[in-house]
Write a structure and sequence with these properties.
By secondary structure, the chain is of the alpha/beta class. It is built from 13 helices and 17 strands. A nine-stranded mixed sheet has the order 3-4-2-1-7-9-10-8-11, with helices on both faces. A six-stranded antiparallel sheet has the order 13-14-12-15-17-16, with helices on one face. The termini are far apart. This is Aspartokinase.
Length: 416
């Protein structure tokens, strides 16, 4: 069995859905499990519904209506018959969202987030599965929440691999075309959990691992894995082949094409990962697999924006030693701040952090009791794998470099 993953951009409107059909027809869809994200920017729109729930309940109806109208436009373009059963199925999903927001008693943002935002994937797959059946591509719709079982760490759930393997083995017919959701799982109480933003790639890898799939293909709006994000760099080059190790390094540093967790289960069973264009499905794309390095060998640029640089020093000029560092890292963990770069000397400690869970301010209040703290917000962290002098100078030019760190293969710059 093969596993395909289509992201939000590939199903953003009715024409995009028809293009997914074209891709399946060109490359084949027998014995295939298709993992699909929420349509377009639906996840962002559902996040606004969650924000309305916590900040201004009077705005929930308007925020949710935007999502309803968006999907209604896609439905009317794909299904000419207004009495087609799909309309009732989609209406029921929105009624479930409204029902949850009415009866929910939990004050926990992360829990509410997962229960609401997860409907984006349920909507997209319900619509696309029905459309495929309508045009003659018979398929089975699967609720991935019955397959991927997790803990209760909402918004960043960890996989229960043993239970997930058992559920996948029991419920996936590998001889059919199957349609399911990315990003989602469920806990022991069958509440929806999510695997982190961009977690649909990870979903595909989890399912491929459990199915012993022959390959995973991620369909993107780019020709494959590039040596830089074309949204941030003018000149880019297609990487034709990447080893698992190299791809994991790129993902760790923040390469946006591949989710950081995606490669680990694939590597364990040596399942190749293809990254290809849904606009040109017959093109070569990029293959990630067993091997050495990258082809062609070239500097690879990665940028993570909206980061935070903290510079800590002791108030009494004493050394920052293991006890201090252990305490600091516990604070990072407790406030859900991801560490992207570390640099320290005898009396100072610099760290670049990702503040995606907004834990920075309460943590700063604690740190300032024991350390002198300098905080630079809204900085960018640039990473160059396989750097050369020309590549480094191209990033330094015209920028204020706050921290520079070099290793044998990698250089990192924090710039303002």
């Amino acid at each position: 069995m093969r596993v395909f993953k289509f992201g939000g951009a590939s199903v953003k409107d009715a024409d995009a859905v028809r293009n997914v059909v074209r891709v399946l027809q060109e490359v084949g869809y027998e014995d295939t499990l298709v993992v699909i994200s929420a349509m377009g920017k639906t996840t962002n729109a559902m996040e606004k519904v969650v924000e309305s729930y916590f900040k201004d309940k009077s705005s929930i109806t308007g925020a949710l209506q935007e999502v309803i109208d968006y999907h209604a436009g896609i439905l009317s373009n794909l299904f000419e018959n207004p009495k087609h059963p799909i309309y009732d199925r989609v209406k029921l999903l929105f009624e479930e969202v409204k029902g949850f927001l009415t009866w929910n008693k939990s004050p926990k943002y992360a829990f509410v987030y997962d229960q609401v935002v997860g409907y984006g994937e349920l909507l997209s797959t319900t619509i696309i599965s029905s459309y495929l059946n309508e045009i003659g591509l018979s398929n089975t719709w699967l609720d991935v929440r019955t397959l991927i079982k997790t803990d209760t760490n909402y918004r960043d759930a960890q996989i229960n691999w043993e239970r997930t393997q058992a559920e996948v083995t029991a419920h996936v017919d590998m001889s059919k075309l199957n349609i399911t959701q990315g990003f989602l799982g469920s806990d022991d109480n069958n509440f929806t959990t999510t695997l982190g933003r961009e977690g649909s790639d990870y979903s595909a890898a989890i399912l491929a691992y459990c199915l012993n799939a022959e390959s995973v293909t991620i369909w993107k709006d780019v020709p494959g894995v590039l040596n830089a994000d074309p949204r941030n760099f003018k000149e880019t080059l297609l990487l034709e082949q990447i080893s698992y190790r190299e791809a994991i390094e790129l993902a760790f540093y923040g390469a946006s094409v591949i989710h950081p967790k995606t490669l680990q289960p694939l590597q364990r069973k040596e399942i190749p990962l293809h990254v290809k264009s849904f606009l040109n499905p017959k093109d070569m794309g990029t293959t990630v697999g067993k091997g050495v390095g990258i082809v062609p060998k070239t500097p690879c640029f990665i940028v993570k924006k909206n980061q935070v640089l903290l510079k800590l020093s002791s108030l009494d000029f004493s050394f920052i030693v293991e006890d201090n560092i252990s305490e600091i890292f516990k604070l990072f963990h407790d406030h859900r701040l991801k560490v992207d770069l570390i640099q320290n000397s005898a009396i100072s400690f610099s760290v670049c952090l990702d503040n995606k869970f907004n834990g920075l301010q309460p943590m700063l209040d604690v740190l300032k009791r024991k350390f002198k703290v300098v905080c630079h917000e809204d900085v960018s962290l640039y990473t160059i794998r396989h750097f050369d002098d020309t590549a480094v100078k191209s990033l330094q030019n015209g920028k204020s470099v706050l921290v520079e760190q070099r290793g044998k293969e990698t250089v990192q710059l924090v710039v303002k």
